[in-house]
Amino acid sequence: MNNSLIFTVIDLIGKRKTENLIEKGFFNKSTELNEKEILECIERYKEIDSDFKVPSLDKIKAAIENSEQILLKSGELGIKCTSIFNDNFPDKLKNIKDKSILIFYKGNLNCLYEDKSIAIIGTRTPTERGKKIGEALGEYYAKEGFIVVSGLASGCDTYGHRGCLNIKGQTIATLPCGLDKYYPPENCDLGDEIVENEGCLISEYKIGTNPSKIRFIQRDRLQAALSLGVVVVECAIECGTMHTVKFAQKYNKKLAVSLHDEVNLDIETIKGNLYLLENSDAIGLSNIEDYKKYKDILINNISR
User: Fold this and answer.
1) Residue 1: pLDDT band by 50, 70, 90 thresholds?
2) Average predicted confidence (pLDDT) for the chain
3) What kind of architecture, by CATH, is found in domain 109-302?
4) To 5 degrees, how large is the angle CA 266–CA 272–CA 274?
5) Which residue ranges make up each domain of the chain?
6) What are the residue boundaries of the Smf/DprA SLOG domain, all occurrences included (predicted)?
7) Could you give phi then psi for residue 161, rounded to 5 degrees?
8) Between the CA of residue 262 and those of 137, 259, 285, what are the distances in Å?
9) Which H or E element spans position 221?
């Protein structure tokens, strides 16, 4: 299917209704539709959703033109696009209940096919010890052949990516915005380095899209979906990291948290670690032996 078609329909009616159109067979892999045929499909959808407002033919034409321009401009920036109908669309993102139906990417999409992948995440304001742990985790699992997944955010995400890159490993960054502008801006060089080292930047959002609260949550969902397991370096009880944790639990991904010295236990960004250890089946990680045990658990899960 032409990616501009799926993009057009998302732009017109939104991701959720587009997903419904796909699931109910209005669109399929072999479909190539013009604006009138798109309108007919959407009108048929109204038969099962009477409250749905059908866009005009002029709006559909304008959306097609806009979609094609955005895809063209994306290509000029080295940004590619793939949809759930394409053979190269990652299974990890379509085999979840709240599946992706379109992603933009920059770099090596093959990273997203690898079974051995691990998310390293946490607060934007880690302790000095947390910074070292994040980097050490990135290095260790990259050496063991894992793709490191994170969100390019300041703090723990940065150190997880950095540890992986220290040994020329491959890492994936999921972004809450269009790939024409990295977020946060101070991590532009890190984003470029990820691509240069055969890693990949991905987003569900077209160029020109700014970050928002819901987009951060949705990018956290991608981190969990792409990973065998999720490691929390440091986090507060109420923070964005917990969104990824909840998605990991929803997708039955194995959760691990970094253990900290008792002297640090009153620090706000450690309390989330303690909460997860006490209220979930998260594994505690404090040394290389723990890292190895967790690695073995993840690898065993691949063969099940």
Assistant:
1) very low
2) 93
3) 3-Layer(aba) Sandwich (3.40)
4) 70
5) 3-76, 109-302
6) 82-290
7) -60, -45
8) 21, 9, 14
9) helix 213-225
